[in-house]
Amino acid sequence: MLAYTYLKKGRFELQNKPKPVLLNNQDAIIRVTLSSICTSDLHIKHGFVPRAVPGITVGHEMVGVVEEIGDAVSSVRPGDRVTVNVETFCGSCFFCRHGWVNNCTDPDGGWALGCRIDGGQAEYVRVPHADQGLNKIPDHVSDKQALLVGDLLATGYWAAKISEIQSGDTVLIIGAGPTGLCTLQCVLLQSPGQVIVCEKDPQRIRFVQENYPQVLTVYPEQALALVRETSLHGGADAVLEVAGTADSFRLAWQCARPNAVVTIVAMYDQPQVLPLPEMYGKNLIFKTGGVDGCNCSETLALIADGKIDTSLLITHTFPLRDIQAAYELFESRQDGVIKVAIMP
Ligand SMILES: [Zn+2]
Ligand SMILES: [Zn+2]
User: Fold this and answer.
1) Among candidate residues 250, 265, 288, the one where a domain is terminated
2) Structure confidence by residue, pLDDT tens digits, 28-64
3) pLDDT (tens digit per residue) in 198-253
4) Which of 269, 288, 307 is the C-terminal boundary of a domain?
5) In terms of residue numbers, what domain contains 63?
6) Do 138 and 180 fall within a single domain?
7) Is 221 in the same domain as 158?
8) What is the pLDDT of residue 210?
9) Is the CB of residue 32 less than 8 Å from the CB of residue 120?
10) Residues with beta carbon < 5 A to ion ligand 2?
11) 43 CA to centre of ligand 1 in angstroms
12) Considering the entire predicted model, what is its pTM?
């Protein structure tokens, strides 16, 4: 089968690999019907993910059809359409029991797919702990509507949930890339008073204005002034940092009101510094990534009810054999690209 493979820093290649087989009685084999390219794939490509194993098939956001299951798998059957969670987790260790599945202590726990074990930019993928990592897609929900459930939408849902947003709050979201837009949809479900989206790309600002007219948009240079003007207590009640640069990190704590929650959703490629003397007395609560992706049944239900729709974020689709071109488009941010889907 075709599988897009991480060879070494700076190099991915489409290779022919054997179809995966069940290795454990809790595994499932999924025939991938749609997968996607994520910014984290680019992080692997550029060597920012030290735990990524050379030789693995990349891709950790996908949907498909169950092909085969191990003896111990009970939640899905061959033929079921499923979402695949970015995180594989045992469901029973200390961290899993608290819902912190990102830190599952199982050898395959956390973000393994497309990083430490073969992922889904391929025709088939083996999913360990299938009972935890797979969710059935409701009949009237399309692959495209369900594609982001396991990773970006899980991230947005988790970020909105841990940010302790109260009804009526002013919420600042920094970054309107694909993850920022998923986060926005989930934040809007929490009945905030005002949502402000800060973004430096005019195309992305326009996308937010067109699709979410109830949201205020602002460029980074004006963000601090707008947030102070719009919020009741000198800053945002909750800030969700989804942009991942030194500037956006600084803006996040600057725009927060005292005692606010600042949720760091972004993955940085450099260490970030908090100037604590300058911040003293602000009493901020920082929450850092990454996602605990264990809410997929909830987000699938919200999609089925029409409360979340991320299909409009998928602006381009490429066949697997042209995945190289898909990466080039995604990385260059040409042609209004937000999210690229890959069809095996
Ligand atoms: Zn991802
Ligand atoms: Zn666990």
Assistant:
1) 288
2) 999 999 999 999 999 999 998 999 999 999 999 999 9
3) 999 999 999 999 999 999 999 999 999 999 999 999 999 999 999 999 999 999 99
4) 288
5) 2-151+292-343
6) no
7) yes
8) 97
9) yes
10) 89-90, 93, 96, 104
11) 10
12) 0.96
